[in-house]
């Protein structure tokens, strides 16, 4: 089969013929029909951790081609079903599978079934970013989730995730939630998951966001329904947030960029007992700050895969992330997504890129840059090469 394969020495990825995988016990074989790009895909092609020969890429959607042994009948999965999920790609030092290939294998419970109202292309961009937002809001910040999951087990495994004050505080007072970079794919799910949390818990959530003005109409409308927005291009955006909340400050902050000074500035909007989650770690050097009122919580979405993952750049190798509780959370989340997508949960708009796997390196990886938002600048002029804004880049396999 064809796969997009890392060339670590040349810091690129090329289309190659590789062996088609077979599903092991508890796994399914998926014929991939669409893939979607994430910033980590080009990040770890330009700064390779994996060795040459690894298949790159995270997000995919396609059809079940075969079931491995011991896939339980309770999975309700059959050959021909449309499913979506994500894999590690070449984003780790240790050997892990990637998704940008004609076929892949994955544990049966780490995919979601695509509802009829959602196309395979639309579904391909959901898994990684939606789970990132769910982990950030529901188990790092501690907002109530609209589905049941094992909090007790999570707290036993991660005692640092103590329950937040929403567990005991006055329900009649609104909770202020601030999402920095509301138009990122992660932020678009973050706002929806915050709104669904309010519905599930009975709390009133006031949603504050920072995004470019061009995205305000979209973000004020359902399903995001922001109460207040500021422009991240204004240098005083954090003061504007404090003014808009009439000095009440933020109970929860989710920084969906976490680069340069964004963490420090976003943290300055927090109430004294507030909590903050970020998407890039302090150790990786993406952001700097002086002393912060609270240490923001970071985690990598890969922990949802429940495997050992070694990653990080330079000397900042992150520790092993194997977490059965995080995997169990991902399984419950994807069960919920297979019901909610297309009705309660809206997929992020997609940009279908020209060509298939063979164009990913030349176009898609270039558009997402090699690490920071600034790295995304390029000189190409084609319409499909305009900057990514509130959307997912998708390649369709014909
Ligand atoms: N920890 C994890 O496991 C994890 C998982 C997923 C993603 N991430 C990280 O999360 C970040 C967001 O990922 P994504 O896929 O959601 O990104 P994305 O959708 O590709 O981000 C594009 C958006 O970023 C906005 N933007 C660009 N520069 C900005 C700035 N300086 N301040 C505020 N907004 C800015 C743009 O807004 P405008 O178009 O309106 O200008 C655009 O809508 C990435 O760094 C990614 O690596 C981490």
TrEMBL record:
Residue ranges occupied by any Enoyl reductase (ER) domain in the UniProt entry: 8-341
Keywords, in A-Z order: Oxidoreductase
One Pfam family, short name: ADH_N
UniProt entry tagged with the keyword Transport: no
Protein origin, superkingdom: Eukaryota
Any one GO molecular-function label of the UniProt entry: oxidoreductase activity, acting on NAD(P)H
Cited InterPro entries: ADH-like_C, ADH-like_N, ER, GroES-like_sf, NAD(P)-bd_dom_sf, Trans-enoyl_RdTase-like
Complexes and interactors: Monomer.
Protein family according to the UniProt entry: Belongs to the zinc-containing alcohol dehydrogenase family.
Name of this chain's protein: Enoyl reductase (ER) domain-containing protein
Lineage, top ranks: Eukaryota, Fungi, Dikarya, Ascomycota, Pezizomycotina
């Amino acid at each position: 089969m064809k796969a997009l394969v890392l060339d670590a020495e040349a810091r690129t990825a090329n289309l190659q013929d590789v062996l088609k995988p077979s599903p092991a016990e508890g796994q399914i074989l998926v014929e991939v029909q669409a893939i979607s790009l994430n910033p980590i895909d080009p990040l770890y092609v330009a700064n390779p951790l994996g060795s040459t020969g690894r298949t790159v890429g995270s997000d995919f959607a396609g059809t079940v081609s075969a079931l491995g042994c011991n896939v339980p009948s309770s999975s309700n999965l059959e050959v021909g079903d449309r499913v979506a999920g994500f894999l590690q790609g070449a984003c780790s030092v240790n050997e892990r599978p990637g998704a940008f290939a004609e076929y892949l294998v994955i544990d049966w419970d780490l995919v979601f079934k695509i509802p009829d109202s959602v196309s395979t292309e639309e579904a391909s961009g959901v898994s990684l970013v939606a789970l990132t937002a769910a982990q950030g809001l529901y188990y790092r910040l501690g907002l109530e989730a609209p589905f049941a999951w094992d909090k007790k087990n999570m707290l036993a495994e991660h005692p640092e995730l103590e329950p937040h004050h929403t567990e005991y505080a006055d329900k009649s007072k609104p909770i202020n939630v601030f999402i920095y970079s509301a138009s990122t794919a992660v932020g678009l799910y973050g706002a929806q998951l915050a709104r669904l949390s309010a519905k599930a818990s009975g709390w009133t959530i006031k949603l504050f966001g920072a995004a470019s003005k061009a995205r305000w109409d979209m973000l004020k409308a359902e399903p995001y329904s922001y109460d207040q927005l500021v422009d991240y291009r204004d240098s005083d955006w954090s003061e504007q947030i404090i003014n808009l909340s009439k000095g009440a400050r933020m109970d929860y902050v989710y920084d969906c960029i976490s680069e340069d000074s964004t963490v420090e500035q976003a943290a300055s909007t927090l109430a004294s007992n507030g909590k903050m989650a970020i998407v890039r770690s302090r150790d990786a050097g993406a952001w700097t700050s002086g002393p912060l009122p609270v240490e923001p919580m970071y985690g990598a979405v890969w922990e949802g895969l429940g495997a050992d993952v070694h990653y990080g750049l330079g000397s900042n190798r992150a520790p092993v992330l194997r977490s059965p509780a995080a995997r169990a959370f991902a399984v419950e989340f994807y069960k919920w997504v297979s019901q909610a997508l297309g009705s309660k949960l809206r997929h992020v708009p997609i940009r279908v890129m020209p060509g298939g796997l063979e164009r990913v390196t030349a176009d898609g990886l270039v558009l997402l840059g090699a690490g920071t938002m600034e790295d995304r600048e390029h000189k190409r002029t084609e319409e499909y090469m305009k900057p990514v804004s509130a959307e997912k880049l998708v390649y369709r396999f014909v």
